[in-house]
Amino acid sequence: MDLGLRGKKAIVTGATKGIGRAIVYLLAAEGADIGLCARTEDEVAQAVREISARGVNVVGETVNVRDGEAYKAWLERAAAALGGCDIFIPNVSAGGGMDSEKNWVKAFEVDVMHTVRGCETLMPHLERSGTGSIVIISSTNAVETFGGPMAYNAMKAALLTYSKQLSQHVGKKGVRVNCVSPGPVYFDGGAWELVKGTMPKLYDWAMKQIPGGKMGTPEEVARVVAFIASPAGSLVTGANVIADNGFTKRVQF
Ligand SMILES: NC(=O)c1ccc[n+]([C@@H]2O[C@H](COP(=O)([O-])OP(=O)(O)OC[C@H]3O[C@@H](n4cnc5c(N)ncnc54)[C@H](OP(=O)(O)O)[C@@H]3O)[C@@H](O)[C@H]2O)c1
Fold this sequence. Notes:
- The chain is an alpha/beta fold and 253 residues long.
- It has a single domain (9-187, 217-242), classed as NAD(P)-binding Rossmann-like Domain (Rossmann fold, 3-Layer(aba) Sandwich).
- Helices cover 47% and strands 14% of the residues.
- The protein has helices at residues 18-29, 41-52, 68-82, 101-129, 151-170, 191-198, 200-209, 218-229, and strands at 9-13, 33-38, 58-62, 87-89, 133-137, 176-182, 240-243.
- It has a seven-stranded parallel β-sheet, sandwiched between helices.
- NADP nicotinamide-adenine-dinucleotide phosphate binds at residues 14-20, 37-40, 43, 63-66, 91-93, 110, 137, 139, 182, 184-185, 190-192.
């Protein structure tokens, strides 16, 4: 199946590791031009080098998405350098952690506000695209209780409601908006490798919840994201697509 991604311009936040990295490498392999950011300079440079070797245009910068003004300026620069934006994937998260007030504010500023600011800044470009598509990376932590009362879970849930409402609002302008919610995704240097080493009981419990007995890989999540982001996913909007190998137990009506 041709996803129709050749020549599309995709901007992805947090794309040097894990899921974000797998997304930009796959989109580039499908012929999309890429704008990416992260905070670590040599890793941004490496991603830009490796992706440009695939023959697509790629621009990357070090940006902390928590810094609203710097982040919005980068988004505008990236869209200008690419000549527009057809696909936006806000992928950065502040992650889980202690339930302190400081952590709630950080989670709000990173998970929620970087998504909202990104959608608002890039919307004029997405409207001009004709196939504009936003895929917000949420989590199964938003739809079932997991790990106690954490800001992470609540912010990921906020993204689901925001995504649905935005999809209704911008649908008439030809822009689709969806969430992809991965379950546990394992990769070297990722959160679940850390959990395996430091909280083996939690890791074993999570593994037991997965009927297929295998956590996802970044590449498996990227394939789901690429389809929904692409023109091939033209009917899908306002959805929350769970990609968790059966980790969650609810019936999804
Ligand atoms: N891994 C899982 O099991 C899992 C499950 C469900 C949902 N998710 C979601 O999937 C998304 C990606 O997760 P992941 O596990 O692949 O993450 P990850 O391995 O921690 O990678 C995060 C990426 O974002 C960059 N980044 C982090 N904070 C940033 C900031 N403030 N500004 C700019 N860039 C920043 C990181 O690079 P620098 O550190 O250099 O900035 C890196 O490129 C997140 O939204 C996460 O909540 C993950």
